[in-house]
Each structure stands twice: as structure tokens, then as C-alpha cells.
Amino acid sequence: QQQVKQSPQSLIVQKGGISIINCAYENTAFDYFPWYQQFPGKGPALLIAIRPDVSEKKEGRFTISFNKSAKQFSLHIMDSQPGDSATYFCAASITGANNLFFGTGTRLTVIP
Amino acid sequence: DGGITQSPKYLFRKEGQNVTLSCEQNLNHDAMYWYRQDPGQGLRLIYYSQIVNDFQKGDIAEGYSVSREKKESFPLTVTSAQKNPTAFYLCASSYLGSSPLHFGNGTRLTVT
């Protein structure tokens, strides 16, 4: 079963708009929630990550919002740019464990 | 520059042949991982290793084998027992028991 559920599968946003990708999980033992960005033909690269002791983390135009009670977290990309067009994966893990559970990915296209 | 090198980038094999994918890292990471990426399914863990000469099965280990004779190297063999081997294979590494994962740029294997 999918440990982390991600939506939408694909997203088209106008340049300058806000891109929002959502993820949900069931395992309350998860305590690390990273987001990865992947360009075609490349491996994923860590974009931003959050732990459940905070409800929001911002790095530049990228913000993670975390709702522990709802077991949901989301990535917001402000002022989306064509260069942000990529596939985004959310993930979750337990600190000290060796498996990072990935969502199924969201293909973001930012239209100029 | 430190990083993970996967080779080759593209690999073509006939059904029934074993094939070995190379992964080398110079990040001095203890842990190394192999993931398989299929469209719409995210990344799934095949095998991981925390230390030389030791490795553990991930979620989809059937039909695959690995070795870890050196800290820097973690080759993956896709055997003829793997029923659907055509996929994008990603190698990753990290410090022991922690994230983030650093990924290579993948090997796309096509078996016909």
C-alpha cells in the first residue's frame, strides 16, 4: 500500500502563480518530511524538508505547510517560474530508519 | 566535486540476460540505496546497505541482487528472474541513519 499519497498527478500553472502540491500519510511515527525536485533525465534533489515540531518552513519561494493532526503536508511554490517545471516528490521517514517512503510524484508545468 | 556516478546512462538487454548497473559515490557516505522509478508509482526501494559487506532487502528486492565490497561502490544486478525489469534505476547515498538522500542521475534499462 502507498505509505504517502500525493496529489495532483499533474499541475499546470501560469508564470507568477502559486503551485500547490499535497501529500497525506497514515503512519504517525513518521517524523521527517522532505520534498524532492526532479528534472527529466536527472535524479531527484532535495528541495526542502520539515519535521513535525513546526507547522511551516519557508526557503525562498518554497514553503512547506504541515498539519500534524490531519497527517497532511503540502508544498507551495510562490511566483512560479518556467524553470520550476519538474516532477516533485514528497516523502516521509522515521529518523534512524533506512527507508524513505515516496509519494507518486506531481509533474508541474509552469507556462510562460 | 563530490557526488554519485551511475553508469551507463542507457542500457539495453535481451530478455533472459543478467545485467549489472554501476553506482559509485565519493561523498564518504556510509549508506547506499537502490530505487526503481516507474511512471505513476514514485520511487520504490530495492536494496540498501549501511556498511561494507552488509545489505538489506527493500520493498521490491525479488529478481535483484547487490554487493557492497567497498564503501564507495554498490552495484545492482538485475537478474533474469525480474519479471518486469524495464525501468529507471536510481542509486542514492546518505550518512548513516539519516537523510537527506543524494541521488545519482540514474540508469534507464530497457529489456526486450
List the helices and strands and how they pair.
The complex is a heterodimer of chains A (112) and B (112).
Chain A: E1 4-7, E2 10-14, E3 19-25, E4 33-38, E5 45-50, E6 56-59, E7 62-67, E8 72-77, E9 86-92, E10 101-102, E11 106-111
Parallel strand pairs in A: 2-11
Antiparallel strand pairs in A: 1-3, 3-8, 4-5, 4-9, 6-7, 7-8, 9-10, 9-11
Chain B: E1 4-7, E2 10-13, E3 19-25, E4 31-38, E5 42-51, E6 54-57, E7 64-66, E8 76-78, E9 87-94, E10 102-103, E11 107-111
Parallel strand pairs in B: 2-11
Antiparallel strand pairs in B: 1-3, 3-8, 4-5, 4-9, 5-6, 7-8, 9-10, 9-11
CA-based gyration radius of chain B: 13 Å
* CA(first)-CA(last) distance of chain A: 37 Å
Percent range for β-strand residues of chain B? over 45%
Overall spatial form of chain B: globular
Which structural category fits the helices and strands of chain A? mainly beta
Taking pLDDT < 50 over at least 5 consecutive residues as the criterion, the unreliable ranges of chain A are none
Order of helices and strands of chain A: EEEEEEEEEEE
Structural summary, described in words:
The complex is a heterodimer of chains A (112) and B (112). Chain A has 112 residues and is mainly β. Chain A contains no helices and eleven strands. In chain A, strands 2, 4, 5, 9, 10 and 11 form a six-stranded mixed β-sheet that branches. A five-stranded antiparallel β-sheet of chain A has the order 1-3-8-7-6, with no helix packed on it. In chain A, strand 6 and strand 7 form a beta hairpin. Chain B is mainly beta and 112 residues long. Chain B contains no helices and eleven strands. In chain B, the strands form two sheets. In chain B, strands 2, 4, 5, 6, 9, 10 and 11 form a seven-stranded mixed β-sheet that branches. Chain B has a four-stranded antiparallel β-sheet with strand order 1-3-8-7, with no helix packed on it. Chain B starts with a strand and ends with a strand. At the A-B interface, strand 5 of A face strand 5 and strand 10 of B.
